[in-house]
Amino acid sequence: MNWSKIEHLIESALEEDLPAGDITTEGIVPPEFTARAVFLAKEQGVLAGIEVASRVFKKIDSRVAFKKNNDDGQEFRKGDILAEVSGAAGSILKAERTALNFLQRLCGIATLTRAFVREVRGTKAVILDTRKTTPGWRALEKYAVRMGGGQNHRQNLSEMVLIKDNHIRIAGGISEALKRAKQKVGAGVKIEVEATSLEDVREALAGGANIIMLDNMSLDEVRASVEVAAGRVLLEVSGKVSLQTVKDLALTGVDYISVGALTHSFKSSDISLEFL
Predict the structure, then answer these.
(1) CB 3.0 to 4.6 Å from 64: which of 57, 93, 106, 107, for a disulfide?
(2) Residue 247 to residue 17: CA distance in whole angstroms
(3) Domain 122-264, what architecture?
(4) Is it true that domain 3-117+267-275 has CATH number 3.90.1170.20?
(5) Of the residues 22, 96, 141, 194, which is catalytic?
(6) How do 81-88 and 34-41 pair as beta strands?
(7) pLDDT, tens digit only, all 276 positions of the chain
(8) What is the pTM of this model?
(9) Torsion, Cα of 191, 194, 197, 201 (10° steps)
(10) Residue 97 annotated among the catalytic residues of the structure
(11) Alpha-carbon distance 151 to 265, whole Å?
(12) Residue 43 DSSP class
């Protein structure tokens, strides 16, 4: 993870929350007053972002001590103490909300990802994320997906070729779009193409796609696509995937299942900072 970018994100978040200080804390809490507080899990989940939370406190006050009790990727239960902080009470209060904002959201993503990963256990399917991320948060949110046991699809538009429906319309068809893409990129760059029908799958196979995305297909259409592809290319299922449908999709024999909900429809984990 690029920590220089994360540090900048933390700074921006603190600037947003503390543009001219914390007038409540500064008016009530004596500067010399010290305290200890714990991050308390109010429900079970998967940890992600504990180092980010630590850096929020350090950015406010380098003297604040932060002790983590769990590592990212570990599961926690309701009532677990995830980390402890101690130092100037005012500094802890100023960092509290920003630290929790990072931690709760990233844990929420990791927890939802772990649920999907559990559903496909025993199959060869890998759970992938998408680019449907919070602007500016992509690196963190994709990190949280990894902590949940999923894998990352492309990080950005520069990383690989993914020919989608609008590209196909503009090019005049899958074959032409694949031809143009191959002329543009080197042999080492993977080319994925979106297919919405068996005809599209056959055309993508003939055109030499490396990966075919089966977009919003029914379960029967996915099964048929697996038979048509016959292991010649990697297959990815995408569109309207849920915890209720993902296992049946995985059992068809596809290689990947991408889930936009991991980063756009997660529920933040219920975690609080409790002063002792």
Answers:
(1) 57
(2) 42
(3) Alpha-Beta Barrel (3.20)
(4) yes
(5) 194
(6) antiparallel
(7) 789 999 999 999 999 999 999 999 999 999 999 999 999 999 999 999 999 999 999 999 999 999 999 999 999 999 999 999 999 999 999 999 999 999 999 999 999 999 999 999 999 999 999 999 999 999 999 999 999 999 999 999 999 999 999 999 999 999 999 999 999 998 789 999 999 999 999 999 999 999 999 999 999 999 999 999 999 999 999 998 999 999 999 999 999 999 999 999 999 999 999 999
(8) 0.95
(9) 0
(10) yes
(11) 17
(12) S
Q: Which of 58, 68, 164, 202 is catalytic?
A: 164
26 belongs to the catalytic site: no
215 given a catalytic annotation: yes
- Residues 132, 154, 182, 223: which is the catalytic one? 132
Active-site residue, 164 included: yes
Cβ atoms of residues 171 and 180 within 8 Å: yes
- Is residue 17 part of the annotated active site? The answer reads no
List the chain domain ranges: 3-117+267-275, 122-264
